[in-house]
Recover the amino acids of this structure.
């Protein structure tokens, strides 16, 4: 698409967020680059240049817009090659800080030259430029949202020297670290947890989101309350605790992270946003769904509906397998046994939080025979864990959705329902819908919509590309019983 100027410019004029991360709009008259969805006035076409990545725009001399923050979009959307997807994921995870370009290339089993050529061809910037962008983003987040001393910010973000720290932020943001702190959001004490206030587009139906998470909270791993959620998270080789509170700050969600290694801060912030689906555009979604007369009253009843995501894709896939044709409470009981038996214990318990979810490597070697699972379901979990541990299935939010769906369907005991549910929550596919789900069928029957699977699918075409949100509305419309909604 980047080669088609007219198509790119139409995307900018539409301000459709689905183009965010796929193209970046740079304006020669201002020296600024933006997301396509930026609310600023649409620039004249003769002043516009398009780039494949924020790093490429920065390398061309443009600075990030302060309204839409395009610099926070590190990786482009799905659909690139396996090499590109994995390279961007590893760079975003900070692998370059530890291994450098040569080490990253070794992890990807390619030469440094080939890696550089592929990245430049696909996203317009090499691995070093992308890593510098990622490091600057982490530093900016710490400067804006904490009162950590700037020297500590530099070390936490992975800079080798204060001079490098100063030069990098001046290059990326057009300001020194001190200037950024003066102009940034009010900080919070650096001691104890890192406390962030995450903005979200209104409306936000917090009751629906937290009400969905609460009955699915796995004892030992999670605690859920009305408008509050806590869980154990992995931070590299260690563990930490994430707390999300939607009751204390109107228009924002308060995120508290208790971490030993703050280099994991940015990925965990993105995980929290994905878990609550904070980046959804309710207005755009509702405009499509209310056009269906059957869905309209459901949407108007809950205009701030979200699709809860996942902190960890593998964990969500395990939950989906456990939830096949069983109640929410039954699946949660099975999951708690897995966490208790095979999860990594915290150094010390934090309230009811005691264990991290087991890694794919750990579960691939585990004996699942005494957990109350059927033999077939245990075999499915083992096959899933081995595939993820071996790298043949990617369950990250940046994964190629079609490739991941095909790989999941190839596993024994995994069908369309499980694949669609994983796509909805782990892969963040807004158009995925488990159409064969019993709850969705019952909800559609209650609305007098279609009778056969093919008729139901035909009806859902009008809901695209927001069918996952339609699924949430349908589930929410059912009476509250344990069997109606999947795990």
């Amino acid at each position: 698409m980047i080669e088609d100027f007219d198509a790119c410019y139409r995307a900018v004029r539409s301000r459709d967020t689905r183009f965010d991360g796929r193209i970046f709009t740079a304006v020669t008259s201002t020296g600024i680059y933006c997301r396509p969805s930026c609310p600023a006035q649409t620039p004249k076409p003769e002043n516009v240049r398009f780039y494949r990545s924020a790093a490429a725009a920065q390398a061309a001399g443009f600075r990030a817009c302060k309204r839409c923050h395009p610099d926070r979009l590190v990786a482009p959307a799905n659909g690139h090659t396996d090499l590109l997807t994995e390279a961007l994921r590893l760079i975003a995870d900070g692998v370059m800080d530890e291994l450098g370009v040569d080490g990253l290339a070794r992890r990807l089993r390619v030469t440094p030259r080939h890696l550089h050529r592929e990245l430049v061809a696909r996203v317009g910037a090499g691995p070093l430029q992308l890593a510098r962008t990622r490091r600057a983003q982490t530093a900016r987040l710490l400067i804006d949202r904490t009162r950590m001393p700037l020297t500590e910010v530099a070390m936490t973000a992975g800079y080798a020297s204060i001079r490098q720290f100063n030069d990098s932020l001046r290059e990326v943001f057009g300001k020194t670290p001190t200037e950024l702190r003066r102009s940034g959001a009010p900080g919070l004490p650096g001691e104890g947890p890192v406390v962030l206030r995450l903005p979200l587009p209104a409306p936000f139906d917090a009751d629906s989101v937290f009400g969905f998470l609460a009955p699915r909270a796995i004892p030992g791993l999670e605690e859920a309350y009305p408008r509050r959620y806590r869980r154990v998270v992995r931070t590299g080789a260690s563990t930490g605790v994430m707390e999300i509170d939607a009751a204390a700050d109107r228009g924002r969600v308060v995120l508290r992270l208790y971490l030993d290694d703050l280099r994991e801060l940015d990925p965990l912030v993105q995980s929290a946003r994905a878990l609550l689906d904070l980046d959804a555009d309710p207005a755009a979604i509702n405009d499509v769904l209310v056009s269906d007369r059957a869905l309209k009253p459901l949407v108007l009843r809950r205009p701030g509906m979200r699709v809860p995501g996942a902190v960890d894709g593998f964990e969500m896939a395990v939950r989906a397998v456990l939830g096949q044709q069983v109640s929410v409470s039954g699946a949660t009981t099975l999951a708690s046994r897995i966490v208790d038996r095979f999860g990594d214990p915290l150094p010390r318990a934090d309230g009811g939080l005691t264990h991290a979810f087991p890694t794919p490597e750990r579960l691939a070697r585990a004996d699942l025979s005494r957990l109350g699972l059927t033999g077939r379901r245990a075999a499915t979990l083992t096959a899933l864990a081995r595939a993820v541990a071996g790298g043949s299935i990617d369950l990250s939010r940046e994964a190629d959705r079609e490739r991941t769906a095909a790989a999941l369907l190839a596993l024994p005991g995994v069908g369309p329902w499980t694949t669609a549910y994983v796509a909805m929550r782990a892969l963040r596919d807004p158009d995925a819908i488990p159409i064969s789900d019993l709850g969705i069928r019952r909800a559609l029957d209650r609305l007098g919509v279609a009778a056969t699977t093919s008729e139901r699918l035909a009806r859902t075409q009008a809901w695209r590309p927001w069918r996952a949100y339609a699924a949430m509305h349908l589930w929410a419309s059912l009476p509250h019983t344990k069997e109606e909604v999947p795990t």
